[in-house]
Structures are given as C-alpha cells and as structure tokens.
Design goal:
five-stranded antiparallel beta sheet
Length: 138
C-alpha cells in the first residue's frame, strides 16, 4: 500500500557558536585562568542530537513500478542541544561540576519534519534513489 514508517536520528556538533557564554570569566586576551593561576585556552563548541519518528506515503504517479513516485513524509521528534566548554588541561574549577551546568544552556524541545521528493526503485534493483527537499522546525 506504499506506506513508509521509520525512525531517524543524528548527532550534530560544531565550533561556530553565536554567543560566547563564558565572557564573564575570560581575561582581556580571551583566556581563562586555571587553578594554578596560569592562562588556558577555552574552546566553545556545540553538541546536539535529533530523533524523529516518521510516516510517509509513495504516490505512484509516474515511474517503472508502483513503488516509485512522489514521496511525502511527515515526522515529529525531539531535538536537544547544548554548548560545550572545553579547556586544554581541564583544570578550571569555575567550569567543573554544577558550575558548568550554568554555562551549557542545555535546551530541548519538539521538532517537526517534512519531506517531499521522488523515489525511484528500478525493476531490476540496480538503481534505487530518493531525491527531495526536507525541512525541520524546532
């Protein structure tokens, strides 16, 4: 009947964070003072994950068989992300334990997923592909 059900997930990470959340503990040169009184470099990184349950339908408007055609999918799930603060030697007391939780800005919430595209499944199973456009709203 050309219904498609699935679960999708993924992780994301990066080093381009819009706002440095640790500006209050940085020196004028951009370093953090460690527990020995020296300067250490602070890396501001992003981490996150997404998990989505999807349901879709293949509408066989054109293609070599009933399994090929217009593919429509909708999904809902959860997105979670946080800011990761990392130092070279991990010896900065103000960025450990419960103090670190104040900087990480852990956030999560509902995510909506849409996909529209074309699915091609050849009769001889040599060429199978799916192309389309998808969007996520959080």
């Amino acid at each position: 009947k050309n219904w498609i059900f699935g679960i999708e997930g993924g992780f994301f990470f990066g080093s381009k964070v819009k706002e440095n959340v640790a500006t209050g503990i940085l020196s004028s040169e951009g370093y953090v003072i460690d527990q020995n009184g020296g300067f250490t470099e602070l890396l501001v990184l992003e981490r996150g994950m997404l998990i989505t349950a999807t349901a879709g339908k293949v509408v066989p408007v054109f293609g070599p068989n009933p399994n090929s055609g217009l593919l429509l999918r909708l999904g809902a799930g959860m997105l979670q992300h946080k800011i990761r603060l990392e130092t070279r030697n991990n010896d900065v007391p103000q960025l450990e334990g419960d103090y670190l939780k104040g900087y990480d800005r852990l956030s999560n919430g509902l995510s909506i997923h849409q996909f529209i595209g074309y699915q091609y499944l050849s009769n001889k199973r040599l060429v199978n592909l799916t192309v389309g456009i998808e969007g996520y709203q959080v």
